[in-house]
């Protein structure tokens, strides 16, 4: 009986050791997305892309084991984002976290730097995101590039010189205001009025009156989520007929389907969805099939962020190195250039990417009206 | 012209604030229940109308009636199955508040799950402004909001002053013991308060779905305004709540005349703060005596 017990213990120990070895090869990354609240549309959009990337990496057996994502809900709020980041770093022990929204990204960046966890942003565009340390990367061109693409187009090609900015009072909105203030004057344009709105504001009929009173040629909207749709609708309902313009926040289905947004212009990074490169082609085809939506720059960015992790982790595994934040950073610096959706991408020293931009017009689905070369 | 435009905008917004605030004030005054889920009633009403009218293309009077029915059923069900059981176990004011808060959170998430968490609006010509004078834009919805608010308020005053159930409601707000003395059932009257208070959010919810649009979290702001208007107007005073709702709407818009839009909401809370400090009983509230 005693011998039988020893054999059983030995067998159980071997089983546990074997199971531990098997699961040690599985990889888990984190994602802090708005999954509830007024900006949950974005989280839904991002998840469609990240899940597609995970299934592509797992199908291709690029990594030693299975890749999975631990999702946490930020509600697009910095405080919730920090709670989520602490959980991912201290409980889930992930080395790579996907982040979204400027405020949330800035809030989690200190934890990322302290714990040597790589945080990758594919949705926030505040220019400050380029200054959050070596463990914070951006796979999306930041808003300064978006404004620098849009402003010359509107002033020089469309002859729209007098701007009114309606912006949400957060790091993103403030950075777009700074960028417009500095870039319009040299072009011969002017920022006639900048109207900041709280992030929870829902009534904009009074703002529309102020916008009309300023007699602009173009109204630039720097908000996001449900609020930007409310701004567009209420501006149009209340007699604002001027050209509307915005940044990549407009690249969501809610804006594409809003009748009042028709004709609005917005910038995104340049992605040719009809490109022949295999990564873009596969993403475009399968994203549409899987989510029943047209691909967007946001979806491509988060797909790219997961693909980037796959490339780095695979290279580390081949080199016999553990997948840690430090090693991921070193490997990214070593490789430098990656084939992602939209083409070949090279990281700058500050962990950002530069890309050509495109100006899109909302017309049911966005149509490209102008391509601006990489700055 | 900007000033006149802001006043007109303020009257439209204030009329809707007034309607929601009166509903909350009626319930709070009569039952002493802090009905935090009043905002959820607003959201339910708006989304039901949106779904029937804009998605299923049901004729608008039927859509509004269905919205009324659902929101009244929601209010009554809360009174019977959430607040009633808590009260029967001597639940404190705070326990009921937490229960109501929980219901509001559940409703918000349910709406988000069913209808999505993004922005939706009911397309309607009523929300499109027309230029009445150079630089002065008014939407038909503004006129409808004011007329509806006045009609609802006058109808409510007549109901409370001239019907037995209305008088019983007023009596309940004075003393539930007194109501029992007269052989009336306070619970049944409380249910009427919830039905009527919930019904009053429907016009504001329907008009908001057309003018401002909706998102799943809209109930929170509605609740905030309702509480502010109830305090400014005087707790228990329907006339006060209506006037305070109007005042807050106008003040919020007039603030835009000289200040940044950031201050618009702050002005509302400054008014609230001023009333709490200088006139705690509100516009028409009675001064409490010990």
TrEMBL record, chain A:
In its keyword annotation, does this UniProt entry include Signal? yes
The membrane spanning regions, by residue number, are none
Q: Sorted alphabetically, which keywords does the UniProt record give?
A: Amino-acid transport, Signal, Transport
Where would one find the signal peptide in this protein?
1-24
Outline the extent of the Leucine-binding protein domain. Answer: 27-363
Keyword Signal (UniProt): yes
Matching entries from InterPro entries are given as: BCAA_transport, Leu-bd, Peripla_BP_I
Q: What is this protein called?
A: ABC transporter substrate-binding protein
Q: Which domain of life is it from?
A: Bacteria
Source species: Bradyrhizobium diversitatis
The family assignment reads: Belongs to the leucine-binding protein family.
TrEMBL record, chain B:
Does the keyword Cell membrane feature in the UniProt annotation? yes
Instruction: Kindly give the membrane topology term recorded for this protein.
Output: Multi-pass membrane protein
Keyword Transmembrane (UniProt): yes
User: What superkingdom heads the lineage?
Assistant: Bacteria
Q: Which UniProt keywords apply?
A: Amino-acid transport, Cell membrane, Membrane, Transmembrane, Transmembrane helix, Transport
Location(s), subcellular = Cell membrane
Predominantly, its location class is membrane
Q: Where are the transmembrane segments?
A: 6-28, 35-53, 59-81, 93-116, 136-160, 188-210, 222-251, 263-284
Q: Name one Pfam family in it.
A: BPD_transp_2
Q: Which family does it belong to?
A: Belongs to the binding-protein-dependent transport system permease family. LivHM subfamily.
Q: What is this protein's name?
A: Branched-chain amino acid ABC transporter permease
Q: Which organism is it from?
A: Bradyrhizobium diversitatis
């Amino acid at each position: 009986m005693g011998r039988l017990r020893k054999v059983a213990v030995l067998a159980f120990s071997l089983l546990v050791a074997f199971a531990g070895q098997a699961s040690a090869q599985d990889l888990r990354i984190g994602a802090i997305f708005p999954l509830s609240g007024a900006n949950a549309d974005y989280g839904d959009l991002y998840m469609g892309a990240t899940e597609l990337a995970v299934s592509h990496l797992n199908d291709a057996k690029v990594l030693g084991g299975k890749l999975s994502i631990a999702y946490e809900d930020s509600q697009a709020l910095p405080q919730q984002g920090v709670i989520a980041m602490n959980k991912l770093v201290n409980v889930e022990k992930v080395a790579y976290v996907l982040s979204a929204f400027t405020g949330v990204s800035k809030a989690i960046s200190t934890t990322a730097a302290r714990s040597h966890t790589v945080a990758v942003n594919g949705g926030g565009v505040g220019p400050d995101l380029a200054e959050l340390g070596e463990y914070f990367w951006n796979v999306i061109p930041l808003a300064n590039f978006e404004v620098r693409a849009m402003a010359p187009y509107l002033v020089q090609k469309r002859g729209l010189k007098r701007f009114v900015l309606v912006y949400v009072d957060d790091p993103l909105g403030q950075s777009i205001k700074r960028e417009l203030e500095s870039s319009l004057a040299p072009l011969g344009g002017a920022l006639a009025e900048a109207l900041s709105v709280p992030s929870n504001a829902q009534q904009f009929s009074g703002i529309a009156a102020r916008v009309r009173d300023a007699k602009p040629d173009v109204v630039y909207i720097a908000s996001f989520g449900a609020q930007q749709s409310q701004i567009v609708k209420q501006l149009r309902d209340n007699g604002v007929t001027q050209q509307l313009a915005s940044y990549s926040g407009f690249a969501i289905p809610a804006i594409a389907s809003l009748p009042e947004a028709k004709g609005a212009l917005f910038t995104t990074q340049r992605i040719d969805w009809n490109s022949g490169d295999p990564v873009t082609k596969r993403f475009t085809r399968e994203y549409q099939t899987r989510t029943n939506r047209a691909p967007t720059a946001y979806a491509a960015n988060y797909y790219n962020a997961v693909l980037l992790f796959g490339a780095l982790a695979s290279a580390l595994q081949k080199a016999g190195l553990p997948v840690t934040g430090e090693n991921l950073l070193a490997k990214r610096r070593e490789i430098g250039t990656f084939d992602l959706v939209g083409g070949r991408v090279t990281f700058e020293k500050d962990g950002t990417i530069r890309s050509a931009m495109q100006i899109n017009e909302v017309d049911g689905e966005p149509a490209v009206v102008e391509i601006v070369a990489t700055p | 012209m900007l000033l006149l435009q802001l006043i007109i905008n303020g009257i439209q917004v204030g009329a809707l604030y007034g309607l929601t605030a009166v509903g909350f004030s009626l319930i709070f005054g009569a039952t002493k229940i802090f009905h935090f889920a009043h905002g959820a009633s607003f959201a339910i009403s708006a989304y039901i109308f949106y779904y029937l009218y804009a998605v299923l293309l049901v004729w608008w009077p039927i859509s509004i009636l269905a919205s009324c029915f659902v929101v009244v059923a929601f209010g009554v069900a809360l009174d019977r199955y959430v607040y009633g059981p808590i009260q029967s176990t001597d639940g404190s004011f705070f326990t009921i508040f937490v229960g109501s808060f929980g219901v509001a959170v559940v409703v918000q998430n349910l709406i988000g799950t069913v209808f999505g968490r993004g922005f939706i609006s009911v397309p309607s010509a009523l929300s499109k402004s027309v230029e009445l004078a150079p630089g002065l834009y008014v939407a038909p919805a503004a006129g409808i909001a004011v007329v509806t608010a006045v009609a609802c308020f006058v109808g409510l005053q007549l109901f409370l002053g001239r019907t037995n159930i209305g008088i019983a409601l007023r009596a309940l707000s004075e003393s539930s013991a007194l109501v029992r003395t007269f052989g009336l059932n306070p619970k049944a009257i409380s249910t009427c308060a919830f039905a009527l208070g919930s019904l009053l959010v429907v016009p504001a919810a329907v008009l908001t779905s057309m003018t401002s649009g909706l998102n799943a979290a809209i109930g929170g702001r509605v609740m905030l305004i309702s509480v502010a208007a109830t305090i400014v107007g005087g707790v228990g005073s329907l006339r006060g709540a209506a006037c305070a709702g109007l005042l807050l709407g106008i003040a919020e818009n007039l603030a835009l005349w000289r200040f940044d839009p950031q201050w618009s909401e702050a002005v509302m809370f400054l008014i609230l703060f001023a009333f709490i400090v200088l006139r705690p009983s509100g516009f028409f509230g009675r001064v409490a005596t010990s």
